[in-house]
Specification:
The chain is an alpha+beta fold. The protein has 4 helices and 8 strands, in the order ααββαββββββα.
Amino acid sequence: MGVAALTLMTGCVSGQYIVDDRVSESREINPVQGADGDYLGSFAVRRPYTDVTPMQLEQCLDAGIQQQQVNLTSGALRDPLGQSGGMAFNGMSGDGGGEVSGITGVTHYEGRDLAYRLEIQRLPEANYYYFDRLGEASGGQDNQFAPIGAWAEASPIQVTQGLEVVADRVQSCLERGATNQPGEDATGWQPQS
């Protein structure tokens, strides 16, 4: 009876901390291992290259990102999982001759307050948006964000969709800047004189 009970109990164990299949199948999402499960470590998207000035880039970042000081309670996060076949956009150090700009911000998406650090690397073939230091607002403490689980119940794909909205907002501003078109937002990019 002891073996049957153990088998039954093992079969009922929650799969809460098993990485969401869509996370493990994605080349854009990089999970990291924590003491109590796997978390979203970084997320990257690629968009068409935009030929804008550094000032236009800065204006688009200011207009498209809600900047905020973020304290991420990292806990015991370990090395990224599956580095060998991992992300397509790792190591955006700017060594490839492109411009790299970074900013820390928060976005509100589908009822969730998500914190991130965004680095944009502009290379001749594309703009790469690299989000890391990902967190979600925790328990009402100002500027405190907890790591986001990579398991299905934590809805990690919803988080990456929210980050794509941020990338698309900045990209849209950059595209207007590249074509010398004014933005709809007075705080955004302004046409060259």
